[in-house]
């Protein structure tokens, strides 16, 4: 078989290549008309749908928040009492505001409520004790003695709001101290991942909200202060002042130094996280060491009498049977 007969010559090869080139050119020119590019139409539809959803959500939020304000107004009764007796002077030194902030109460409404309740509580307790003693406990008791007792009990109402706030501060600091090492670990991870300190605070606040709402609140509030305060150091100091926890203050000091001298923040956060974890462990060990003395009195009152009864009762029964 002669294979040379099937090999095209130069003219045939040129004609084939020219025909292929013409076909490719025709396909390239007619391609947009045959297969239309719908990307622009789809993007326009997406943009239209996005705008429609945005308008719908904006209308819904406006309808929901029409009567909602971020500023909580104090109750009219409390505000009237504070204005009538000029109690606002008691909060001018900032100590009451600081205590309320440490307890988690912010704004003017908690301050007004605290001052008004501290004035109202003694009177309410006095009247309640007076009525209770005269009508229930001792109706025949002398009025002067009952009044003196009710006045003594009513005077305790002046200290009741402060005691309540102090208990709230203790519980809040305990919750912060318990979850602070985990927050530092998350902060270390976000910082070493390349985030800025503001983004790191925001991310940690969002992630740790389920475990510790107190830390999440402080983190997000610090993020807001970092965004609008001219002095970033003031935002860090406010974080330590609001919490009042020693571990938080140590981290705040490290953040201020890193902000001032440009030192690496990752190593400092790693050391602080380990120190806070060790502090939490030492507190747990201290509580465990103090448990035996606390159990002594319940054991004497409840366990030993039962144990003596179990041991002595059979012998007493035998002795009574012999006699």
From TrEMBL:
UniProt main location, coarse: membrane
Domain Type II secretion system protein GspF, chain residue ranges per copy: 184-312
Show the stretches that span the lipid bilayer.
Answer: 12-35, 115-137, 143-165, 295-317
Subcellular location(s) per record? Cell membrane
Annotated Pfam families:
T2SSF
User: What name has this protein been given in UniProt?
Assistant: Type II secretion system F family protein
The answer to whether UniProt assigns keyword Repeat to this entry is no
User: The organism's lineage?
Assistant: Bacteria, Pseudomonadati, Pseudomonadota, Alphaproteobacteria, Hyphomicrobiales
Q: What is its membrane topology?
A: Multi-pass membrane protein
Q: Which InterPro entries match?
A: T2SS_GspF_dom
UniProt keyword list: Cell membrane, Membrane, Transmembrane, Transmembrane helix
Keyword Cell membrane assigned to the entry: answer is yes
Kindly give the PANTHER family that the UniProt entry links to this protein: INTEGRAL MEMBRANE PROTEIN-RELATED, PILUS ASSEMBLE PROTEIN
């Amino acid at each position: 078989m002669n294979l040379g007969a099937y090999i095209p010559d130069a003219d045939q090869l040129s004609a084939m290549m020219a025909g292929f080139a013409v076909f490719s050119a025709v396909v390239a020119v007619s391609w947009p008309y045959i297969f239309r590019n719908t990307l622009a139409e789809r993007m326009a539809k997406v943009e239209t749908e996005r705008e429609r959803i945005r308008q719908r959500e904006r209308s819904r939020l406006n309808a929901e928040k029409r009567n909602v304000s971020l500023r909580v107004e104090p109750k009219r009764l409390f505000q009237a009492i504070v204005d009538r007796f000029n109690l606002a002077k008691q909060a001018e030194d900032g100590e009451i505001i600081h205590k309320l902030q440490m307890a988690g109460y912010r704004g003017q409404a908690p301050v007004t409520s605290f001052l008004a309740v501290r004035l109202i509580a003694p009177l309410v307790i006095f009247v309640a004790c007076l009525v209770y003693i005269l009508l229930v406990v001792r109706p025949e008791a002398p009025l002067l003695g009952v009044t003196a007792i009710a006045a003594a009990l009513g005077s305790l109402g002046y200290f009741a709001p402060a005691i309540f706030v102090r208990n709230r501060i203790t519980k809040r600091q305990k919750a912060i101290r318990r979850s602070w090492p985990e927050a530092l670990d998350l902060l270390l991870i976000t910082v070493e991942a390349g985030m800025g300190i503001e983004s790191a605070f925001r991310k940690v606040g969002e992630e740790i909200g389920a475990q510790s709402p107190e830390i999440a609140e402080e983190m997000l509030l610090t993020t807001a202060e970092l965004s609008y305060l001219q002095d970033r150091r003031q935002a860090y100091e406010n974080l330590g002042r609001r919490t009042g926890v020693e571990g938080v203050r140590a981290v705040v000091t490290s953040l201020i130094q890193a902000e001032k001298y440009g030192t690496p923040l990752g190593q400092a956060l790693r050391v602080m996280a380990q120190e806070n974890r060790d502090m939490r462990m030492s507190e747990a060990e201290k509580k465990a060491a103090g448990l035996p003395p606390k159990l002594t009195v319940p054991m004497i009152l409840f366990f030993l009498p039962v144990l003596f009864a179990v041991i002595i009762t059979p012998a007493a029964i035998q002795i009574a049977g012999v006699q």
